[in-house]
Amino acid sequence: MPKIVRSEIKLDGIDWEYYTAGAGKSLLLIPAFHSDINRFKPLVEYLSQNFRVILPHLPGISNNQTLGDYDYTAKNYARFLNLFVEKMHLQNYLLAGFCLGGVIIVRMLEQGVKQPERVLIFEGIYDADLFRLQPMYRFIKKAILKLGPKNKLLNSIVDLVLHDERALKLYLKFAYSKEKNLDLVIKHQTEITKIMATRAYIEVIFDIFQTHLAKENLHFSVPTSLIYNKYDNLIDIEPTISGMQRLFPNSEVLQVDLTQHSPAGAIDIKFVHEMIKPLEDKLMQLKD
């Protein structure tokens, strides 16, 4: 298995860390919200057998690094990642992203990133109005949109939950009460949640809840693969796919037999195989 190597790069004065593995054509992989190299390791290892995989950590989300004075939004992450593509001299590369990573890719293309050979979007968000939210999360969405990301009370509550392990585990126990292997789920979720910065956590969620690509006149000609579950517990699949096809008219849709937007516990190789299965032939064509 190719070794995963950590590196750092300075982008417009801001420190970013990123991880690489494998050799061959470059595949820039933008992680999801709530994700870091540890969560994505099985996917990186799998893809690195045929590609040079590059996984940047999103400051404040994948670690506790900061974006300086910049707000934590998809547009600002895209701005820095476009600089990353430039500075890394990526040519004939593949650009992939999961969930929030899909929105970041849209913003990268909107801002004029060096065109990739192909875009791969897994479970990409299209419009916040298409989320399937449980009552508790509908309330949280309403509260965050009403209070705004700079609200002191909101920041204090989130800071307590993120950085007091007892409070975090209590919240996770409630949020994932229906999961099997609850102890393992809580352990994993605690590890990937407590690394996040309070300000980034709030601002990114606020930005996600304000994402309405349906209201934007955007179209990208780049060849694209859209990979979605046949049923998703977080997003309304049919209108999301329809909307993403309008954004990417030169796209193909591949659906997988999964029902969870992402595993509550650790991502394992079984999940990776299920997610990648419909894309395997295309990846073999693209690796050369």
UniProtKB/TrEMBL annotation:
Coiled-coil ranges (or none): none
Positions of the AB hydrolase-1 domain: 27-262
Transmembrane segments: none
InterPro entries: AB_hydrolase_1, AB_hydrolase_fold
Name of the protein in its database record: AB hydrolase-1 domain-containing protein
Organism: Candidatus Roizmanbacteria bacterium RIFOXYA1_FULL_41_12
